[in-house]
TrEMBL record:
It catalyses: [glutaredoxin]-dithiol + arsenate + glutathione + H(+) = glutathionyl-S-S-[glutaredoxin] + arsenite + H2O. Belongs to the ArsC family. Gene3D superfamilies: Glutaredoxin. This is Arsenate reductase. Its EC number is 1.20.4.1. GO terms for molecular function: arsenate reductase (glutaredoxin) activity. Keywords: Oxidoreductase. It is an enzyme of class 1 (oxidoreductase).
Length: 115
């Protein structure tokens, strides 16, 4: 049986929708509230490797925190460090099965991982 982890922010409507979608389909998930328990740079690097679009997809570039960093053409390591230092910059929700990960924007994007 596949073990799923949902990187979740309960204050985010898309994250709540994703959790509801998974629960409605009776998918058992470990909910990781990444703002309460941030990922370190090694965990972020590993998660990014499982995402289709890698590190760039992991960053919420429209956030004021990201813009305040004023990074010019950041490397993957700079992006990962920015997320490690500012967990709110991590994209959400993300569903991870340990082999592949998907960003749930829209939440239905997670379905190909569970079906």
């Amino acid at each position: 049986m596949t073990t799923f982890t949902l990187y979740h922010n309960p204050r985010c409507s898309k994250s709540r929708e994703a959790l509801t979608l998974l629960e409605d389909r009776r998918v058992v998930v470990n909910v990781h509230r990444y703002l309460d328990d941030p990922l370190d740079i090694t965990q972020l690097r590993s998660l990014a490797q499982r995402l289709e679009d890698g590190v760039p997809a992991l960053v919420r570039t429209n956030e004021a925190q990201w813009k305040a960093l004023a990074l010019q053409d950041p490397s993957d390591e700079e992006r990962l460090q920015a997320i490690a230092d500012n967990p709110r910059l991590m994209q959400r929700p993300i569903l991870d099965d340990g082999t592949r990960a998907r960003i749930g924007r829209p939440p239905e994007a997670l379905l190909d991982l569970i079906e």
